[in-house]
TrEMBL record:
The lineage of its organism: Bacteria, Bacillati, Bacillota, Clostridia, Eubacteriales. This is Uncharacterized protein.
Amino acid sequence: MSEEQPLIDFSQIPEYEMKALCRTLLQSCREFYSDPKNVEKFERWKAERDKENRKEV
């Protein structure tokens, strides 16, 4: 990586906050993937990524 990434110490996040974050993220994922267009885009992206990974091996 050329840019520095912030270091996040996940062990410092209280459990109740982590659960709240996870619930929010899960709901967002469900909404996103409920749209067939988004599922199709994901499948195309995944196929392309898999194709590139096979070239590297």
